[in-house]
Amino acid sequence: MPENGILAVFAHPDDETFGLAGIMARYSSRGVPITMVCATRGEAGEIAPGVDATPENLHLVRERELREAMRIVGVSDVRFLGFRDSGMKGTADNEDPRAFINAHPDAVVHLITRIIREVKPAIVVTWDESGGYGHPDHIATHHHATAAFHAAADPARYPTSGPPWQAKALFYNCIPVDEFQSVMRELQQRTGSAVDPPGDAEEMMRLPRVTPNVVVDVSAEYGRKLEAFRAHASQLSDSDIFLKMPDDLSRRLFAREWFYRATPPVPDGKLLQDLFEDLP
Fold it and tell me: How many helices (H) and strands (E) does the chain have?
């Protein structure tokens, strides 16, 4: 059993569920400590019809949803960095001085470094450079969490924020673009109507990508993961493609989780099956 656990660093409530909730459910049930760090409370998210939320209280609703999703997968240590959701690229929310993308990088890295040194994780997980589908906050999270992973081990960086801590590995959560598109095509063929995936499909193809070198089978945790996904009700409408998927297609996306281990590097051609596999 790993003595040190997992630190997940993401931008908004619900970012974690698609890519990491299965891993969280598996390891929390085995007593492995897991900390969920969220940069914002998702204030700029759209509000699904029928949800008792307003633009003024959405941050409270989404915090509550994240805590409930994490309860479902067994994670009690949930922390917020306190920045504001920056919104999608090109929106007015980008200009808010409180927006995460407008925060001074050193201030953000300092906050995450302090948490790493406090909880002493074996593993840090965050977005890859693409941010999944290019959300500015996702990309910022990638850069800040990566910098903090390295800063936490350097005694010269932020010396008043605790003793240095070298986590064993840094992982980037990857959206499996090829598999995702394959599932979307299959869904369109079955329904006979166009499927509108989240984000801009052309933009997603232009984003920088890494090839996953870790693919984890979380089929045993599929039910809890789906329940955690549904806990983010303010972000889900009845027409959401993930809720409309037949079970077999849903399992192709939700019963596996994809990662790229950036540190330490994985030998070319090797595919790991677990985050803790082959660690020093």
Answer: 10, 7
Taking the C-alpha atoms of residue 95 and residue 92, their distance in angstroms, rounded to an integer, is: 6
Question: What SS3 state is found at 39?
Answer: strand
Q: Nearest-CA neighbor of 34 among 83, 64, 79?
A: 79
Q: CB within 8 A of 174, min separation 6: which ones? A: 19, 128, 209, 210, 212, 258, 259, 260
Which pLDDT tens digit goes with each residue over 193-234? 666 665 565 666 678 889 999 999 999 999 999 999 999 999
Q: Is the distance from CB of 19 to CB of 257 less than 8 angstroms? A: yes
| 16, 259 contact by CB (below 8 A) | no
Contact 234, 58 (CB under 8 A): yes
| Helix 177-191 with 247-254: angle, nearest 10 deg | 170
Instruction: Give the Å distances, CA to CA, from 17 to 25, 138, 168, 192.
Output: 10, 14, 23, 29
Name residues whose C-beta falls within 8 Å of residue 99's C-beta, 6 or more positions apart in sequence. Answer: 83, 84, 85, 86, 87, 93
Question: Rounded CA gap, 142 and 58, in Å?
Answer: 24
* pTM score, whole prediction: 0.94
Residue whose C-alpha is closest to residue 241's, from 2, 18, 27, 90: 18
Mean pLDDT of 95-105: 97
Nearest to 153 by CA among 189, 113, 193: 113
Reported as type and span, the H/E element at residue 174 is none
Taking alpha carbons only, the member of 116, 218, 100, 130 closest to residue 170 is 116
